[in-house]
Amino acid sequence: MITLADLKALARPAGTKVVLLVMDGVGGLPRADGKTELDAARTPNLDRLAAQGTLGLADPIAPGITPGSGPGHLGLFGYDPLQYRIGRGVLEAVGIDMHMTERDLAARGNFCAVDQAGLITDRRAGRIPTDTCARLCTLLEKIKLPGIELIVRPVREHRFVVLFRGDGLEEGLSETDPQEVGKPPLPVEAEAPHAARAALIANGFVSEARRLLANEHPANMVLLRGFSKYPKIPKLTDIYGVKAGVIAVYPMYRGLARLVGMEALSAGDSVADEFAALETHYRDYDFFFLHIKKTDSYGEDGNFDAKVHVIEEVDHALPRLLGLNPDVLVITSDHSTPAIYKAHSWHPVPVLLSSKWCRPDGAPRFTERECRFGGIGHIRSAELLPVMMGHAERLTKFGA
Amino acid sequence: MITLADLKALARPAGTKVVLLVMDGVGGLPRADGKTELDAARTPNLDRLAAQGTLGLADPIAPGITPGSGPGHLGLFGYDPLQYRIGRGVLEAVGIDMHMTERDLAARGNFCAVDQAGLITDRRAGRIPTDTCARLCTLLEKIKLPGIELIVRPVREHRFVVLFRGDGLEEGLSETDPQEVGKPPLPVEAEAPHAARAALIANGFVSEARRLLANEHPANMVLLRGFSKYPKIPKLTDIYGVKAGVIAVYPMYRGLARLVGMEALSAGDSVADEFAALETHYRDYDFFFLHIKKTDSYGEDGNFDAKVHVIEEVDHALPRLLGLNPDVLVITSDHSTPAIYKAHSWHPVPVLLSSKWCRPDGAPRFTERECRFGGIGHIRSAELLPVMMGHAERLTKFGA
């Protein structure tokens, strides 16, 4: 695969606008009548775009591999997810819109319950309410550790994020969750010498947390995992010299986009709000990542009809986007979430590219089946961004 | 991708003949009536070949990347252009049929104009006539540098090539063109210690050139860039054990083919001449690269109809080639040059392979659209040569 350094060397300025519209988990599988969600949806606007555009299929990571949301999106942003990895702690932190610095070490936390002997009785402390979680996070943030600023934030129920901010905190720590009840939380161990200070700090935090939570019930202890630093990723905005904005209702996707240099734009709550936000900010950015969440949510719920409805809602809103006349529009997905499978899956995702410089396939519809015949071919998701930038005339010739 | 070393290990002798017919830039885009150049051309012979052959699409470098002629052809010769790179100086030298040795360091030169303070007033010296350029090159060739033989040749207008022939001349030099007027030419700097001697020699040349050109007008100075050695590429002829010949009207393509071990055969000036040359030399070589330039030239001119006409001219000449009954014939392109885009583009190129051992697609025509469904699939150009050699029974089994 072409390297990001090569792409940066080829990048050239242009006045073109590029829109990446991600319908999360839109790729599907056929239900009993043989139709996938895209087959079943009434999508006159997507159909017209398919006829004028170029289609393809993309494997987000590698054939057969099911992506998480992080790697799924990194691929769409042009990064090989096998090469650029994001730790679980960082993913949780960006997922609740926390701003990380290079001095931070992030960890994903669970409040848990332990008995008087210190053995775990419930790894999730009965899934305490989120507001209890928030109160306990405020308590934990009071912990004093030498040279460290602590930021502790609730996620949902028993889940929280802790950022250890300070010098010399390196990755390479073992997790404290023994993954079963009846055992004590494990000490944090440094898996490499350079992580020794971080291990000391993390163990200090756990020890103080045990003391502070002693009289709480049921959440009287913490488990930490996914210790990770903010990844050193060349920014998409630097590679291509674009100003990029993300429009996403869920913080996780804004956080992922910020990782690669995009600015979070106000999005509202509905598909219509998101398309309105695109209009509002259209003049001010070169590249837009617009994220539609509910195709995935309904896919995970196994709600085929509701997923179809969201696809139709996006189709209905499309003329607003098309009215802006972007130079390049790609509609695709970070992974498949077939409603009959009720989970992320490994199936390749459908891709539709529309541009005045695309070579039209003349396909009747935007479906997984039609995408098999597309001129983009069957690629990796990470190869798609250069294709977008090529059509946007933002890449100069390779060699003479 | 399979390595050249692996391919060399698999290569075996055979009495088969292979013809690679490159219609430069033949891949296109549809004009208003929805037809690409290949769609619009009347091509009864190509149509018949398409029905009996196997089709495919190929990305010359990577999806979305527009190739220059050098990398585009290296791909077709079986080299990953991202791995095997050719410097600008070398490309210019082979482009005017200069023969380079391993002791040569090539640079692309521009005659420019400087004022009395030595500041550049015109980076192209008013695009002096080519015969003036030739006279000045003869002048520069008289420069004496210790241990160095100088070869200086005009290209066109203000452009020339200089070969520094001598020992210890290594790559890694900065260019002297500041890329704007009002500044002085930059000194050549060694970007690595091993290039120190080359920098000394190059600066000596520039200094002497300044002196010799002082009374010329307007071309009274030179700018040098693209310092590069003849690349150490395993020769196609060695890898596969074939005797290979190139038939090309333009010197650039002969030069590129010589880089990989092919011999330049007399070609004449027209498509008919080139096909005649193939007949003449057919007994004496195993592998032929036959290059048709004008599909690209008319593409760059934006002359859709003339490009269509060249395709028809090639189709008309095809029976002559087919009469030789080559064991493998591939017809493809080094890149697309859509007439409506008027430039090289990033779109994948159509591929047609004909052989008694091919698995026929039964396609009605040789067009970009039909090639999407081809049995070759959607590959990288560099993967095509092994496919050709496989069909030519020139590769033995991999493993037992």
What is the SS-derived class of chain A?
alpha/beta
Q: In the residues of chain A, how many domains can be counted?
A: 2
Look up the CATH topology of the largest domain in chain A: Alkaline Phosphatase, subunit A
Characterize the quaternary organization of these chains: homodimer
Q: Bin the helical content of chain A.
A: 25-40%
**Beta-strand content bin of chain A:** 15-25%
Q: Could you say what the CATH architecture of the largest domain in chain A is?
A: 3-Layer(aba) Sandwich
Q: Figure out the total of helices of chain A.
A: 14
Strand order of the largest sheet of chain A: 9-8-10-1-11-12-2-13
Description:
Two copies of one chain form a homodimer. The first copy, chain A, is an alpha/beta fold and 400 residues long. Chain A has two domains: 4-85 and 234-391, Alkaline Phosphatase, subunit A (3-Layer(aba) Sandwich); 90-229, no CATH class. Helix content of chain A is 32%, strand content 20%. Chain A has helices at residues 4-10, 37-40, 44-52, 69-76, 88-95, 130-140, 196-212, 236-240, 251-259, 271-281, 294-301, 304-323, 368-371, 384-391, and strands at residues 18-23, 54-59, 104-114, 120-122, 149-156, 159-165, 221-229, 244-248, 263-264, 287-292, 328-332, 349-355, 377-380. In chain A, strands 9-8-10-1-11-12-2-13 form an eight-stranded mixed sheet, with helices on both faces. In chain A, strands 3, 4, 5, 6 and 7 form a five-stranded antiparallel sheet that branches. The radius of gyration of chain A is 23 Å and the shape is globular.
